[in-house]
């Protein structure tokens, strides 16, 4: 099990940003963040979450062993 050394989440890291804004449970936080960034230009009413990661293909790579 990983030991947590801090009680704060660093949003400047990929892990921290995705942990807060990339989770369906935090949908309201994401919408408020986007609306604050956009100001009066556009108002976000709803967001949907899709697969967040596009992993590279591994064709041509051989397994060690």
Account of the 3D structure:
This protein has 65 residues and is mainly alpha-helical. Helix content is 31%, strand content 0%. It has two helices and no strands. The protein has helices at residues 14-21, 27-38. It starts with 13 loop residues before the first helix and ends in a 27-residue tail after the last helix. 0% of the residues are buried. The mean pLDDT is 81.
Short structural summary:
The protein is mainly α and 65 residues long.
SSE diagram, text form:
Blueprint: H1 14-21, H2 27-38
Key terms for this structure?
65 residues; mainly alpha
| Low-confidence regions | none
Helix content: 25-40%
* Mean pLDDT score: 81
Largest sheet: none
Number of strands: 0
Cα separation of the termini: 28 Å
Compute the gyration radius: what is it?
A: 17 Å
Strand content: under 5%
The backbone outline, from C-alpha atoms, is extended
Structural class: mainly alpha
In N-to-C order, the SSE pattern is HH
Distinct helical segment count = 2
């Amino acid at each position: 099990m990983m030991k947590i050394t801090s009680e704060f989440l660093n949003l400047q890291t990929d892990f921290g940003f995705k942990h807060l804004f990339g989770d369906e449970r935090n949908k309201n936080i994401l919408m408020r963040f986007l609306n604050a960034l956009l100001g009066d230009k556009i108002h976000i009413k709803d967001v949907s979450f899709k697969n967040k990661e596009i992993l590279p293909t591994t064709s041509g790579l051989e397994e060690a062993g």
